[in-house]
Amino acid sequence: MSAMTSGVGAEHAGAGVRGAAVAAAGGLLAAGALHVVWVFSPWPLRSRAEFAAVVVGVEEARLPSGPLTLAVAGALGAAAGLVATAARPPGRFGAGRPVRAGLWAVSGTLAARGLGGLAASGLALGSKPAEFRRWDLRLYSPLCVALGGLSGYVALRTRRRRA
Asked: Is the pLDDT of residue 12 over 90?
């Protein structure tokens, strides 16, 4: 039975979908791991104050708590799991409707963060430090847009099609 006649998009098992899923899941896992590191260390910066200004865009006293940072790490790990699961063939742990819905939520959230960050930092909206805005334009927001786009691509290419 071909992929099209089984009701699943022919691209589901394609190398492009698998590559996008690996890249997105890897990026999300790396971001999650970095958040775990940040609970204990301001790496790669020298101090919590510098970390707060450059990475989070706040004063040190307003840094998110350790448990909140771990929750973000967990959410990023769960998002990576959704991406990897969605790229699998349909079945018990494949690209079912709940997985794809979660994947669309991941894609939309990342895209909104990325595009919103590009607009806010690019137009110098708000009171974020200049160093944060510079990194937001160069790395944080483009990375979110890329991961959101890859996740959306996986969601789109793994949707069920009518026979």
From this structure: no
Q: Is residue 78 within a helix (H) or strand (E), and if so which, with residue range? A: helix 66-86
Crossing angle of helices 66-86 and 97-122, in 10° steps, is 130
Q: What is the pLDDT of residues 13-57, one digit of tens each?
A: 588 899 999 999 999 999 999 999 999 999 999 999 999 999 999
pLDDT digits (tens, 9 = 90+) for 86-112: 887 766 566 678 888 999 999 999 999
Return the closest-CA partner of residue 55 out of 132, 150, 123: 132
Burial letters for 4-23: b for 16+ Cβ neighbours within 10 Å, e otherwise?
A: eeeebbebbeeeebeebbeb
Closest CA to 133 of 57, 58, 31: 57
CA-nearest of 29, 19, 28, 5 to 153 is: 19
- Residue 49 CB burial class (10 angstroms; 0-12, 13-18, ≥19): middle
Res 2: pLDDT: 41
